[in-house]
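Record 1 of the preview.
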Amino acid sequence: MNKKTRFLVSLLLVTMLFLTSCGSNNANTGNKEEIVDSKKDSLNFAFIAETKELDPHKSSDTLTYIILSQIFDTLIKIEPDGTLTPALADEWEFSDDGKEITLAIKQGVKFHNGDILTTEDVAYSLNRAIDSSYTSKFTAVMESAEVIDETYVKLVLKDTYGPILYCLTNPSISIVSKKAVEEAGDTFGTNPIGTGPYKYVDWISGERVVLTRFDDYFKGAAAIKDVNFRFITDTTSAAVALESGEIDILHNPSKSDKQAQVDNPNLEYYETDSAYYYHISMNNQSGPFADKKVREAVSYAINREDIIIGGLDGNGSPVEVPMPPAAFGYDPEFKHNPYDPEKAKQLLAEAGYPNGFTASFKINQAPMYSNPSQVIQQQLREVGINAELELMERAAYLDDVTRNFNYDISLYVITALIPDADYVAYTRLHSSMLGNGNNFTQTNIPELDEALDIGRYSLDDNERIEAYKKVNQIVKDELPVIPLMTGKYAIVANKDLRGVQPSTVDFHYVHDYYWE
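->
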């Protein structure tokens, strides 16, 4: 492969072209660059849980990622629609073998303490992240980073990895000040110093994290001066605070409040398909579902729309490929087997079950699983499969089902923490991932492995897309899993707050916001 420089969205020209979103009214995201002054100087942004840590290399949860994204910058930024743009790296170039990335670091960027960002800070940050157990989901493929000169840093990989640029967008791979970290030691997370649009001011446990605008931000000062990230763990109290104007924006509002918030003329409701998807997992090696005809029968017995209505209160979208819409490689045109209960009964008879059979349907007892599972149970019953629901505590479920394969059929969710098909499809379907909570359907299909390997190791976007089309077809033909649906990420805000967008990866940037 020839050396390839990648600017702006050059790696992923087709990334996320298929995503859709909607608001209670037509979303007006505005253009912050045209806004000279914001009509209000402050913002109250509420979560229904408290963040855990503000040291990026010790963080692993979405709520923390949102706050980190205001304080720190990454080398590459993932936009709310999933596309990639330069951040602290102006450009990047892959070596011929795809195992090294040379990154040109933006010059003149300031940290909040006034120090100038250097390539030494960048290499230090990458190596610190690589050494952290919290970031292994994104750094496992990385070997080390080294300074080339005052402009360039080289990141060395253990192997080629198609989604590597996505890894560099995650807030847990943010760039920190080497000097500040070494001075603070283990307490860096209590007084974090980054290059982001907002500076840390205070953290009042149980109440809020307070930030203020960094006027020397390299992309220009934010329109809103002060930001309070409020923690309101009671969803009813959070909804009331939003309606009264006590808070201005609420992350992940309760689904039960959706209609009232959509109907409220003072609010704007934003949502988009999430980065996770539900799938029916079946034991491909033992029990009745080891027979492909039985798995095929299940695929025809399933009505995705009814599961979304009955199991997710209508807050979801059908998924017919083994990856969520937020993932690179997702094909919205591909169609799985349609709902056809008579076809399902015919296939069961051909498999030797004209009168159906009884199977163990083990699931995590959490409502996000139990509610849709009850709808699935009824749909299977209608074609002759008596799927006996067994609700299990999470740890017991993970041991029994995902590690010991002691089940017939199950329902599971996997999230594309890297918005790429590899993160979810390879983990669930490649034969090398058998056991350890990953490929617990015991799928072992050489042709599928080959397509997944191309998707993982190729650095050619078109080749990767074609590989995932093959993955989709093989999954439809062999049915190791049955893709079902995705849920929604939602955020609701005061109607006068502009620049808000729903995010496919649940990242939100206050720098883009302004009051109208």
